């Protein structure tokens, strides 16, 4: 599951619009994997987990407080979705066996994955749907909504592609789901969780270095949302060489952290003041920090000359977010 999430590359290299919202469902079925549920379903709104189901608990459960209130208007919501997830669990278990037969395999470790959802631009109203199937870490089937056909990257998927392409009634149902139903429920869930999903948390940012010969890492932690970017510049131009970009990672409290390391051994110390670390967070003003040895935190301790500025706690100023029943089909 984690591999599938990472391969999707949810976060882009620079900030995305704070007005674009998304709902994504991830289904993962496995066989031959020990100490892991045979089936896991996770629902995300704006990349925040809001619902979870697995074959151990056999219950669809809310992961955010704002999802609990949905039963006020729909008392059977969680029971209905539990039953839906149970059915989907069996479908995906069967799918593993079908693909194994096509691969002429009888055992081993296998992972069947399904990701679908939609994006909605709150400003323009534009909607984009997506529907991907994966098997053993590789793309298996991908929906092309523009042509209303399926793409089969693997030969084993061609048979299913042809059958699904010929089922015009099913394609009409799928298209209606992604263009009408999915965004309708996405809007509903965004409204339920707006105060949480649309909040902004300002990070603490530090320059870190393990040793004099090590890269200098610009590290930000505690920010929200995850629509953030950080990069190094020289004389105002973004650097691509001698830079190592870390991924945006979650913290235990729901906030995020990220780091970008600069190889300072590639240029003389007298040029350090030409370099800047730039942190961007959706909805807030860009903040820039000069590469200054006086403020770098190291394993050797913080230079005494740095005084209170040794750790840069940026208080950035503000410049101026699925109520979807689980949808599955036994394809």
TrEMBL record:
Keyword Translocase tagged: no
Alphabetical GO biological process terms: immune response
Species annotation: Pogonophryne albipinna
InterPro entries xref list: Ig-like_dom, Ig-like_dom_sf, Ig-like_fold, Ig_C1-set, MHC_class-I_related, MHC_I-like_Ag-recog, MHC_I-like_Ag-recog_sf, MHC_I/II-like_Ag-recog
Name by which UniProt lists this protein: Ig-like domain-containing protein
Cellular component terms (Gene Ontology): external side of plasma membrane; extracellular space
Pfam families in alphabetical order: C1-set, MHC_I
Family of this protein: Belongs to the MHC class I family.
Span of domain Ig-like: 203-277
Leader sequence segment: 1-18
PANTHER family for the chain: MHC CLASS I ANTIGEN TRANSCRIPT VARIANT 1-RELATED, MHC CLASS I-RELATED
Protein keywords: Glycoprotein, Signal
């Amino acid at each position: 599951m984690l591999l599938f999430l990472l391969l999707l590359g949810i976060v882009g290299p620079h900030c995305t619009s704070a007005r674009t919202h998304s709902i994504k469902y991830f289904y993962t079925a496995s066989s031959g994997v020990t100490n892991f549920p045979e089936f896991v379903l996770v629902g995300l709104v704006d990349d925040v987990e809001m619902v979870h189901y697995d074959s151990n608990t056999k219950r669809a459960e809310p992961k955010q407080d704002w999802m609990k209130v949905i039963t006020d208007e729909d008392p059977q919501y969680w029971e209905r979705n539990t039953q839906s997830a149970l059915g989907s669990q069996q479908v995906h278990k069967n799918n593993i066996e079908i693909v194994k037969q096509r691969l002429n395999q009888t055992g081993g470790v296998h992972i069947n994955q399904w990701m679908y959802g939609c994006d909605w631009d709150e400003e323009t109203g534009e909607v984009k749907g997506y529907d991907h199937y994966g098997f053993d870490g590789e793309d298996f089937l991908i929906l092309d909504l523009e042509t209303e056909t399926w793409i089969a990257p693997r030969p084993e998927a061609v048979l299913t592609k042809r059958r699904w392409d010929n089922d015009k009634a099913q394609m009409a149902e799928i298209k209606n789901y992604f263009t009408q139903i999915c965004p309708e429920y996405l809007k509903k869930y965004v409204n339920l969780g707006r105060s949480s999903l649309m909040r902004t948390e300002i990070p603490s940012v530090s320059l870190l270095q393990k040793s004099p010969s090590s890269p200098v890492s610009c590290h930000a932690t505690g920010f929200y949302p995850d629509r953030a970017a950080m990069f190094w510049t020289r004389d105002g131009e973004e650097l691509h060489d001698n830079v190592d970009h870390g991924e945006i990672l979650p913290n235990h409290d729901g906030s995020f952290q990220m780091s970008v390391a600069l190889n300072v051994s590639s240029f003389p110390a007298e040029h350090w003041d030409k370099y800047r670390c730039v942190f961007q967070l959706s909805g807030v003003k860009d903040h820039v920090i000069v590469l200054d040895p006086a403020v770098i935190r190291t394993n050797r301790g913080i230079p005494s000359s740095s005084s209170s500025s040794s750790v840069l706690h940026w208080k950035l100023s503000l410049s101026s977010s699925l109520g979807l029943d689980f949808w599955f089909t036994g394809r």
